[in-house]
Specification:
5 helices, five-stranded mixed β-sheet
Length: 171
């Protein structure tokens, strides 16, 4: 159980090895950080369903909010209902991708995403955590908004009140 946590926090100590820009220094937790705006989305594959892979390039032309989460992360679990409401409210204007970091893979994800639990969210899986490492995630949850051209708009380390006027205006 502690290995995934250790791996994510280890990312913070290896930022130089990942060649992250100096602007990638941690911003305030639970607030919008635009220091990496314009950075292209990682060109990495992740699973849409077991055995079927895609990348953010497949969603070019749409705004995409990637939410890195895990079933063992209490703040991640707490914000899922609000993310589901956001996804349902924004519809075609914004795709919300809950990208699981669970080491147990689809077994853990499917257990949490029981049929009927969420209306709009469709989970995806990032194993072995390449997406999180590439963007320099220092913990969970971590959310990154990408524009229609696949460039970062902003990111949040921690949670946001997804229904707030500030967040709505920034989407």
């Amino acid at each position: 159980m502690f290995a995934p946590i250790a791996r994510l926090f280890m990312v913070a100590t290896t930022a130089a090895a990942l060649a992250l820009p100096a602007a990638a220094a941690p911003a305030a937790i639970n607030s919008i950080d635009r220091s990496l705006a314009g950075t292209p989305a990682p060109r990495l594959m992740f699973e849409v369903t077991p055995g079927k892979k895609t990348s953010l390039a497949a969603f070019k032309g749409r705004r995409v909010l990637v939410n890195l989460w895990a079933t063992w992360c209490a703040p991640c679990i707490a914000e899922m209902p609000d993310l589901d409401k956001l996804a349902a409210t924004k519809g075609d204007k914004l795709l919300v991708i809950p990208l699981s970091q669970d080491m147990e893979g689809w077994q853990a994800v499917n257990k949490f995403f029981k049929p009927g639990k969420f209306k709009a969210l469709k989970p995806m899986l990032d194993q072995p955590g390449s997406f999180a490492e590439k963007i320099g995630a220092r913990g969970l949850p971590m959310s990154v908004l990408y524009d229609e051209k696949g460039r970062e708009v902003w990111r949040v380390a921690g949670t946001l009140k997804w229904s707030s006027a500030e967040v709505s205006a920034s989407l």
